[in-house]
């Protein structure tokens, strides 16, 4: 497989502090002729800090420092690094909340005190509203949600937050994706792991398929045979020689397993 050597970057939205708990980390790679970017981020907390989260998103887009090796136009020419890639997956604790009073939300997402899914509260989801408005994560999509809110739980249980903070249930943990107009992303699964009880969040997971563009010099603006691959620099002549040797070895093995005509017990009449 032709997989380019991955590049990584990170950006903290709390630069002066020693402990950097908010920001984004990412990895990018080429798979044949297709570029992919994966970003994991932790944005500013609390219900009313919507503008802070929008600012975090924009700062991460500007602050991620790469690519350094792979032949993609430098991000210095754009304020949105995600626009340079064929596929982008952005996920993590994005910290967006539900814009409804806690009692109203609890009534919709609880059955006998147990968490459940409610389509109605998604109309008040901050992130979905911002995507629709284009204020943040413009062009990104999310697979349909059919699981209970992922936040906030009493650690070690499946019960909503009973601490003094009394946090309102919300979908803080998300997986978003975006692709160029000529590409497609298909969501096969999107769910939360409700049985995980080590945190006050429930992790989410997703399964997606994407279309990979063939890696040929005819349909890309650079030579795939000159970029650093995960196993080293690709050398076409060595690759073709290896394929030829493999084909020869398979042919020899095939001949050895075929029964000899001189020892055949089958009668041949001509």
Automatic annotation (TrEMBL):
A molecular function (GO) term: phosphatase activity
Pfam family, one: Exo_endo_phos2
Matching Gene3D superfamilies: Endonuclease/exonuclease/phosphatase
BP terms from Gene Ontology: phosphatidylinositol dephosphorylation
Domain Inositol polyphosphate-related phosphatase: 3-216
InterPro entries tied to this protein: Endo/exonu/phosph_ase_sf, IPP-5-Phosphatase_Type_IV, IPPc
UniProt protein name: Inositol polyphosphate-related phosphatase domain-containing protein
